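Schema walkthrough. Field components (list of strings):
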Amino acid sequence: MSDLKQLSGLQLIVVFISAMIGVGIIIMPRSLADAVDAPDLWLSIIWGFLLIGLFSMIIVQLVSRYPGQTFFEISTIITGKYIGFLLNVCYILYTLIVSAYILRVTSGIIKNHLLDTTPLSVVIGGFLIVSTYLITNGAGDIVRFFQLYFPVMMFMFIALCLLSLKDVDINNLRPVFGEGIMPTFQGIKITFFSFLGFEFLLIFSKVLGKRSPNKLRAGMWISLGLTAIIYIVFHALSLGILGLEELKQITFPTVEMAKSIEFQGFFFERFEILFLVGWLITAFTSFSAYYYAMWTGVRQTFRTKSKLFVWMVAAFIFGAALYPTGMTEVFQYSRLINYASAIAIILFPALLLLISLIRRQSYAK
Amino acid sequence: MKETNYPLVDNLVKMIEGNDKVTVKSVTVQNKPIYIIYIKTIADVDHIREFILKPLLDMKAKSKPSIVENLPLNDLAKIEQSDQILKKIFNGFTLIIEDADIYAVNTSKFSLRSVQEPVTEVTLRGARDGFIESLEKNISLLRMHLRTNDLTFQEFTIGQKAFTNVSVAYLEGAANPELIKEVVKRVDNIDTDYIPDGGIIEQLIEKNSNSLFPEVHETERPTKVANALIEGRVAIFIDGSPSVLIAPATLNSLFHSTDDYNFKWIPASFIRLLRYFAAFISVMLPAMYISLISFHQGLIPTDLAFSISKTREGVPIPSFMEALLMEITIEVLREAGVRLPKPIGPAVSIVGAIVLGEAAVTAGIVSPLMVIVVAFAAICSFTVADYGLSLALRTLRFFMLLSAAFLGIYGLLLASFIVSIHLIRLKSFSTPYLEPFAPYFHKRWKDSLIRYKFNKRGGQSE
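Field assembly_structure (string):
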């Protein structure tokens, strides 16, 4: 298994940013534009960030009461064998749905922009197999992989931002508070879920070691904050380049934005490849995070040590990812997924923390 | 061979019987027979005559009880264990037997070449001596470059049918005791008939035999070994092999060359970055080209796309086959160049490069752009100093090419994920292969992608 004993502060931030940024960056601009319908939609991201920061504190509180335990262990400790089992199964289902969703959206985009004739199952299968290879060796490898690719992904994004800067029409971003502050609150229901991935803390608590809750809180706020900044920058850029009306029409606005960059005299005229590669890395990392969460859940709930189980998990994800027939159907499911996530990341941890507080149960020293 | 009066000598002779090269001489000194046993072909006969036989014949009564111990020899040692006898004699030692005691003197004289500059590792600046095929000479070469009390050797003899002397060298205090233990354990556990060269040891002590990447460095340069020992690594010397193995190896250290340290830090770092970049290009470029040509034509700039399609006009085979064909040609050329005698080697490359390449383009079998891509990738791969790593990268290039042919840029990305996950998992003697990048060790970055300047004390590692 992995030889990683304790995450460093930097690793913590890298892991959470890599887990959080994923599909959201590519589909959020459109849904946010639909929901807010105002040029100051990026404000919603800040509200979402603040809200999710508060909820993440529940998880931090819960995790620091049971150091070295994952959600699946904590739930059984708190609620007992049978209810814990039920909770775990629900959580496993949740990770299954989210990972299948990420996988499906990712392969949809790959099919759309890179491989239009390749069968979807091949695209999904390849992604799944490589991710399986990554997660089977445990948390240490995952962290190292995230760390290795983090600079690559950041480089791609920063390069893209700098290149697209000159195409931004600042008028597209104005006015701020043109329709008051209320519409931007409307967007919370979208932006809130773009931070999904932070609940990975429930799984990664295993390698947090004896990190003090305060440091953990700081780490969470920093990674959430950086993610929010990246989101805001991308929204401002896509809004500035494409304009609000266009943003509402295009399925994948961020890719369109990358496409629209014109930089003559350079070998690569087309920059969407730069963006797609950088984004594929983030999609891979966030998918692997959920996949690992699911696998950990299956292992700890059903108490199996066999590595062959991972293929069963993979088969489930594969089936779930191929279930929707088209992209439109996938987006219809996304609302369902949001409800499921709200239960999994807010209700479950809050409930567990409450019971734990009432029972005055804590393993922390 | 005639029977002697001593069962000890008879036994010994029986042990080596059938080997007519063993010489047994008996001298009677003070009415006591003394037997001298050695192998003529590997022992220094003059030395034996001068320092063993002559003094024995001239021997007068002395105060010491043993006659042999009066001989003017500096490394006379008594053999305590019987299994040492054969090892000693085949190492060129001379055995001297007096009563029941067996003494051994080093009189070895194997035929050896002189110290030369290594052929495979070229440096511009710095020491030019290279290891040769003798363990002892190699150790003396190392000692010349590394004069310290801390240099420690642990000796092993490996092999069931024919034994080889192997020495594990490290600096006491600099090397991690865990590492030393691990290397010693792995060397000690080798159980094989015969070790012809360092490459075999390398394969016997590594853990991931299915990995493409080398787990140890192989070098012929004493300075490189000295540097590695100072850094706390462990070297394995093999008798009869000019290559010395250094463990552990990391991807980062395999990219380094001794020249990096001999020049000023900014140009040296620049060259080092160039080397990393070249290695990346050599693995990825043909695959990237294939994926752009056959999957993502839309991503190629319009003007370039036009000129590419113009050059590809009339090429009868798909671009993937074209690339594969060229890659295989290059590999064949390279292999032929290595195997051929030195004076003919360059001729092959001229025939390959000019005649084959030029003619293939003119005949319309391959497009000129493909020739450029493949040739540039091949040249880039020449910048990788370590031959083991360069072999790994050459093999990887085909893997990348294949994945790009199936799934384009996406396949290429997945393939690089697989390679990076493999490298993340890989460990060389418990050291992560991708250190200091993943896991990230901030302090070790000073000697990674860049080679940061030395501080006043000459050190760099803190």
